[in-house]
Amino acid sequence: MKCKITNKELKPFMSFGKMPIANGFLNKENFKDEFFFNMEVGFNEDISLFQLNDHPKPEKMFNAKYPFFSGSSEYMKKHFKNYSEYVKKFLNTNSKIIEIGSNDGTFLKNFINQSDKFIGFEPSKNVAELAIKNGVPTIINFFNKSSAKNLKEYVGKTDLICASNVICHVPDLNNLIEAVDILLSKNGTFVFEEPYLGAMLDKVSYDQIYDEHIYMFSASSISKIFKKYKFELVDVIPQSTHGGSMRYVIKREKNEVNNNVNKILNFEKEKKIDKIESCIEFKKNCEISRQKILGKLKSFKDEGKSICGYAATSKSTTILNYCNINSDYIDYICDTTKEKVGKYSPGMHIPIKDMNYFHNNLTNCVYLFAWNHKEEILNKEKNFKGEWFSHVEI
Ligand code: TYD
């Protein structure tokens, strides 16, 4: 696939094989019609961008059945509160805060009672309706040039556009940045957070790669991409969320750039995060990781131990399908999301159970799929005396 911001062809360097929709939890009667795509990743050296070679259409993923709710983690709720405090310095009292991909309103809710001037864009109807019910005005649509133009008619330009874990979901970055350009005032700020390529390479957390995550950004890629549109990366702040993320602060060009930016850019050069070499190394590490986790599961089984999965994350879809781990190994996966419980995991069809089921059917070992929520989960499950494990260090 050619990225619209550059003419250079993407260089695919690895295939994870046949993958279903990561959040496509399904009923038995839908097994026969399940959608799969070949999940290949590549690196665009021109803009240092790690990305999927091809991906399903956004409407296949973000629709009225989207089962991901930002508010499902207490840790993330706290994080969004802190994030809302951070962005306040960019606010001008007269303009509305706009959030791209506002999900259930967990971030914007923090502005209720402080400012009535905020609005979210969220294409997944079910989560958007929950946000509206919670007092967060939400446009049920994708954020793009056309929806940005419509909003500008009503509210004018804004000083602050925010996003979290959503820019990497947008196939047409060209259209997205032009939409930001339409709505952002001359001195406005665009702040967004995304899982960080450097963290993924370091932890070999290849489960960050799935249909929704079309891109895995770094400071190098963000800086190069936004420069093409006369925007500047003016600050970068590492975050612990999602196993290692980065907050990017963007302004129109010729703004003062914080030292953090050069520090991170130099770090990425040193580690070759801006070059395909790091990806080739990553590919080898993914193969080693797969062998290791399969070895671990086999030895548990040889010892007669039972195993379940904890949290039916999107990430788990990549692991289970890439490593071909099915119910022969994992009895069930427990999760708090009512939209997932009672269904089966995408591709491998492992049953999803609620937390009561987990507490009444404890297994000897638990594969922690939400390893990024380790603290919160292990704290909640102190009474479980068996073994926790994952493919990344926990
Ligand atoms: P997350 O890592 O955000 O998922 P994803 O890989 O999809 O981005 O974890 C969210 C999922 O984990 C969601 O299905 C709810 C589940 N979960 C639990 O079941 N219990 C918990 O304590 C937490 C924090 C999450």
Give your account of this protein's structure.
This protein is of the alpha/beta class and 394 residues long. The chain has 12 helices and 16 strands. It has helices at residues 58-61, 74-87, 125-133, 145-155, 173-183, 197-203, 219-227, 259-270, 277-302, 314-323, 355-360, 374-380, and strands at 11-20, 36-44, 49-52, 97-100, 118-121, 138-139, 158-164, 184-195, 215-216, 231-239, 245-252, 307-310, 333-334, 352-353, 365-368, 387-389. Strand 12, helix 10 (314-323) and strand 13 form a beta-alpha-beta unit. Helix 4 (145-155) runs parallel beside helix 5. The mean pLDDT is 94. The structure holds thymidine-5'-diphosphate.
Quick tags:
globular; 32% helix; 394 residues; 12 helices; alpha/beta; single chain; seven-stranded mixed sheet; binds thymidine-5'-diphosphate; five-stranded parallel sheet
Order of strands, main sheet, comes to: 6-5-4-7-8-11-10
Shape: globular
First and last CA, distance:
35 Å
Mean pLDDT: 94
What is the percentage of strand-forming residues?
Answer: 15-25%
| Helical amount | 25-40%
Q: Helices and strands, in N-to-C order?
A: EEEHHEEHEHEHEHEHEEHHEHEEHEHE
